Amino acid sequence: DGLVVSEKMKSSNIDVKIPKSELEAEEKGAEEERPRESDSNILDVSSDYPRDKHISIQRHLADLEKLADLREDERKPCPLCPEEKFKACYSHKLHRHLQNLHWKVSVEFEGYRMCICHLSCRPVKPNLVGDQTLSKMGAHYHCIICSATIVRRTDMIGHINRHVNKGETESRFITVRAPKLPYEVMKESATDVQVLPNHSTPQKTDSYFNPKMKLNRQLIFCALAVLAGERKPIECLDAFGATGIMGLQWAKHLRSSVKVTINDCNENSVTMIKENCHLNKMKVKLNIREEDNDETVGNGEENGDTIEVTKMDANVVMHLRSFDFIHLDPFGTSVNYLDSAFRNVRNLGIVSLTSTDISSLYAKAQHVALRHYGCNIVRTEYYKELAARTVIAAVTRAAARCNKGIEVLLAVALEHSVLVVVRVLRGPTPADDSAKKVRYLIHCQWCEERVFQKEGNMVEENPYQQLPCDCHGSMPGKTAVLLGPLWSGALFNTGFLRRMLMEAVQYGLDEAQPLLKTLVCEAECTTLKHFSTHSPGDENKQEECGVYIRTPNASAESCLVHGKRKSEEVLRGAVKRQRAEHSAEHPPFYYNIHRHSIKGMNMPKLNKFLSYLSEAGYRVSRTHFDPMGVRTNAPLVQFKTVLMKYSAPTYVGAQAEGSVHLPGEIQVRQEIPAAAANKVEAAELAEDDKSGVTAAMLTQSYPTHCAAD
């Protein structure tokens, strides 16, 4: 592989000044000095010292043509083929040969192209017919990193990928050494972080930073700030630090209330985290634990401005230490880290996780969801809430295996991720209560009505009877599908969300405030006009997870000192009595108003439709899962009734919103009492007039007038 341009020119007989006898002698000596090697796909002849790159590795196609231009004749040979394979030709023919035979099948890496080479760089197996040896010269690629020769293009691509996975991306050739990429400084929430230019591609960078996840980071910060107000100091862990932006925001704003630990298993990411800590004037306590040696480097005393940086696997660091707050944000699913997270998390602590495997959670890859979460899901109109309940079900099972229960504080499904925040309740009783809330869902595929399966182990003769709709009786075959297991409990805690909103206002997190207001309305199942951020009644009754939480208007006597089991036992009786005073939890799932619209009818505005449902006596609110979604406890039949009642025909442009003809089943239900009233009135008129003709005429004409009215 150590061939350079001058050597190649000699082997291709381009330098005509050298006699043929000398060339034959030189080639014969080279064959005698060449060691006998095994016939394999990869021939590693790397060395420790840098050298010139092989002529088959070029940046542009024109560079290959320049090598052929070294010969002054009109006919130019191919620099990568022997004379026996490709004879010298004119420039246009050579250009076509280089482009089609060498350049199109090349392997690209960091701006360079490793073209296929047909020279005698790699020995081939001797043929039975000696004359055919030269015609079957082995084609191969030269690796830009380790100078190996590889026959197949797919093997070459895999060879380069193995180098990249090992972190070996720097070439040993002098001319290919890439300069160190400059850092970019990104600022978010008064925190500066250094990132690489390719920070937006997680597979190709050690400092993954996604600006689109800013809202996700703000919600997690608000949850941590609420927990920091309950007890101080708390130990919190960012298990997948990357650039360390999240842990830096925690330490910079909450100061002495938190002890921050940022972990990452990548050495380059740990270096980046340390540099970002110094950039934000934070002291670093480095704790790197590897297989053979443990190393602890402290750059200062432990205080509010000190961040501990660890280089371990996330499962290892959560098994070794206990934390009050743990956040998991891996690339993809988080199910591989749930058992470790719940193993040592403290009682009444918080575990938050961000799942970015939306292709499986949003039912685009159903087999992956079944493999990761053990859950059967299909694409529905409420697929985002289905994804959140799928993740919570997996969290519940992982916590129950550690004899812990959960209380869901927050579940948000955004465009690129699903965020779930739960509080941990220690003990087998909370674990059993949480496990009972994991149920199967019966989903009708015709009308998209849905209902959670009833509790109990007995098999029902006809499970379709649990559905409010009658699609199974009117449609042939099977009409429903069983989804799950899913979390059937509440997705939000109103008191916790209100305190998160207060923290967002205090720290000026403008992007999180509108979403938190929507979540509070959704948790209470009320419209925005009835929502109040500062409600003294709600603040005095903030009971979460079976314990009292300190609030601004609550007295000191009603607050719980966390960690004392006697206080918990004394207050459990009062908690059970107060639970009846709280409003009922929000109804599960939502309906999309566009999904159930009527063809040829103009729907009412969404806010007006919410008021119409509320006037009909149902609880109703908007949902963050779907901008056109309506969360309500109304059955689907009544939902469609109200929607069709206040829809106007499309062809009547200036018609005011009012009642219209209701087709099908709903129209029949409203015509029955009207027809009965018409018959009674016609009978009375017949008795008065003593004329059956008048009564018959009224019986036929009166319903028409009623419909017209």
TrEMBL record:
<keyword id="KW-0862">Zinc</keyword>
<keyword id="KW-0694">RNA-binding</keyword>
<keyword id="KW-0819">tRNA processing</keyword>
<keyword id="KW-0808">Transferase</keyword>
<dbReference type="InterPro" id="IPR013087">
    <property type="entry name" value="Znf_C2H2_type"/>
</dbReference>
<keyword id="KW-0832">Ubl conjugation</keyword>
<dbReference type="GO" id="GO:0000049">
    <property type="term" value="F:tRNA binding"/>
</dbReference>
<dbReference type="GO" id="GO:0008270">
    <property type="term" value="F:zinc ion binding"/>
</dbReference>
<dbReference type="GO" id="GO:0002940">
    <property type="term" value="P:tRNA N2-guanine methylation"/>
</dbReference>
<dbReference type="InterPro" id="IPR002905">
    <property type="entry name" value="Trm1"/>
</dbReference>
<keyword id="KW-0820">tRNA-binding</keyword>
<keyword id="KW-0863">Zinc-finger</keyword>
<dbReference type="GO" id="GO:0005730">
    <property type="term" value="C:nucleolus"/>
</dbReference>
<keyword id="KW-0539">Nucleus</keyword>
<dbReference type="InterPro" id="IPR029063">
    <property type="entry name" value="SAM-dependent_MTases_sf"/>
</dbReference>
<dbReference type="InterPro" id="IPR042296">
    <property type="entry name" value="tRNA_met_Trm1_C"/>
</dbReference>
<keyword id="KW-0949">S-adenosyl-L-methionine</keyword>
<keyword id="KW-0489">Methyltransferase</keyword>
<dbReference type="Pfam" id="PF02005">
    <property type="entry name" value="TRM"/>
</dbReference>
<comment type="similarity">
    <text>Belongs to the class I-like SAM-binding methyltransferase superfamily. Trm1 family.</text>
</comment>
<keyword id="KW-1017">Isopeptide bond</keyword>
<feature type="region of interest" description="Disordered">
    <location>
        <begin position="16"/>
        <end position="47"/>
    </location>
</feature>
<dbReference type="GO" id="GO:0016423">
    <property type="term" value="F:tRNA (guanine) methyltransferase activity"/>
</dbReference>
<protein>
    <recommendedName>
        <fullName>tRNA (guanine(27)-N(2))-dimethyltransferase</fullName>
    </recommendedName>
</protein>
<feature type="compositionally biased region" description="Basic and acidic residues">
    <location>
        <begin position="17"/>
        <end position="39"/>
    </location>
</feature>
<feature type="domain" description="C2H2-type">
    <location>
        <begin position="143"/>
        <end position="163"/>
    </location>
</feature>
<keyword id="KW-0597">Phosphoprotein</keyword>
<keyword id="KW-0479">Metal-binding</keyword>
